[in-house]
Amino acid sequence: MRQYAPVAQAVVLGGLALGLMSGVIPARAADDLVAKAKKLIGEATTGLVASNKPKTPELELTIDDFEPVTGWVGPKTPVKAPENKKIVAISCATVAPFCANVTQGAVEAAKALGWDATYIDGKASINGYVQALETAINMKPDGIITMALPESQLATYIAKAHAAGIKLVGASSIPEKVSVENGKYDAYVSVREDSNTLLQAWYTIADSDGKAKVTWMWDPGYPFLVAALERSKKIIAECSGCKAEEVGLREFASAANPVRMQELGAGLLSRNPDAEYVLTAYGLNSHSIGLAAKAMGRNVKVVAKNADPNNVAFVSQGELQAEVGASSNWGGWAAVDQMVRLLAGQQPLDIMEENQPEHIFVKSNAPADGVLDFQKLYDYKGKYLELWGRK
Question: Is the pLDDT of residue 344 over 70?
Fold first, then answer.
């Protein structure tokens, strides 16, 4: 990840200031937003919700574009999976449960096809990603699936893989500007981190009755997270009774360190004495911010995302307020669906079309062990095997 000087941890991203909420919003519109947010959050806590516009970019979705899931909302076009393929799946970091679980889901799906599949840990750094990609290329697979590895920083190695005839799918990545020829992924798949961000903001509005005082603890090392933060701020700005405060920044290495996260959380809350909610870029060690608040005697609600099982368990215990997320395992199967299409010689789907449903965990519905088997809610594995001609 990009490294930042300590002073950068306290900067306000994108010029966010206390005056963000100065725009005038009609009372009726504000009331409608709170009512719609409460309806959507009720549906997302009692079941699954998904976009009814799977080709619309996630950050362009509105609160009216989400509906309760009553059936399969993923891809409809079947594709015959080829036999005897070999893939390598690279995780951004095994230490991050969401990254690891998506990647392990991809390995599981590939093995369900009878393919050879290998998991590699990217170890939470650009150097680790480079080493993982080089190792993967040397294994001479048919395809490589990456989880949250930004293509702009790895374009040279992506091009190297292409030169070896390898197809690449980027999960939790977006198309970026690269100057290296053939340095872009062949396909992308959202694992709903962007729409997690939307639900995270709408949850905060609903839970506070439209009166939330919000801060963010965010990671600017990924372009898609930066874009998601901007949309989150806009949603909060639409809430006339809400107040947006500072965005605290930290890189992935800090997020992976619970002690450092508690220090950064304490600093963020000290600078924002009115803050009632902290929204995080992903789940890793979000609990440490809650610990910081407790040590300060503050009643602060931390709302994390990505359905990190550790955090879901903390929600069950009442240590975190909520965790928003889609099934990470399902996300791995979705990434393999894109790979199947590429290796079968078909065009991949749009980045959002896998359209995994999302859920919101709160104290009343969070499993004590943090694990919700989405397969019990919908047989997505069976549906993919059917699409791939294996069932």
Answer: yes
Question: Residue 47 is which amino acid?
Answer: G
The confidence score (pLDDT) of residue 391 equals: 84
Rounded average pLDDT over 375-391? 95
Q: Biggest alpha carbon distance in the chain?
A: 61
Taking the mean position of all CA atoms in its chain, how far away is CA 45? 18
For the CA atoms of 17, 22, 23, 29, the dihedral, rounded to the nearest 10 degrees, stands at 100
**Paired tokens of 34:** 């709170």
Q: Does the domain spanning 6-54+63-70+193-326 belong to CATH 3.40.220.10?
A: no
Read off the pLDDT of residues 34-47 as tens digits, 9 standing for 90 and up: 999 999 999 999 99
Distance, CA of 216 to CA of 289 (rounded, Å): 11
Across the range 60-76, mean pLDDT stands at: 96
Helix (H, G, I), strand (E, B) or coil at 235: helix
Q: What percent of the chain has pLDDT over 70?
A: 92
pLDDT in tens, 201-237: 999 999 999 999 999 999 998 888 999 999 999 999 9
CA dist list (Å): 50 to 53, 278, 306, 353, 354:
9, 24, 15, 11, 11
Alpha helices in the chain (DSSP H): 27-46, 97-112, 126-138, 155-163, 193-207, 223-237, 252-255, 258-271, 287-295, 309-316, 328-343, 374-377, 380-387
- Report whether pLDDT(369) > 70: yes
Residue written as token pair 């962007």: 194
Torsion of CA 175, 178, 180, 181, to 10 degrees: 50
Domain with CATH 3.40.50.2300 in the chain: 6-54+63-70+193-326, 86-192+328-357+374-387
Which residue is listed with tokens 């609160």?
Answer: 63
Architecture in CATH for domain 86-192+328-357+374-387 = 3-Layer(aba) Sandwich (3.40)
Judge contact between 99 and 146, C-beta under 8 A. Answer: no
Instruction: Please state, in angstroms and rounded to a whole number, the distance separating the CA atoms of residues 2 and 255.
Output: 13
DSSP assignment of 67-81 equals: EE--S--S-----PP
Mean pLDDT score of the chain: 92
- Phi and psi torsions of 33, nearest 5°: -60, -45
Chain center to CA of 119: 20
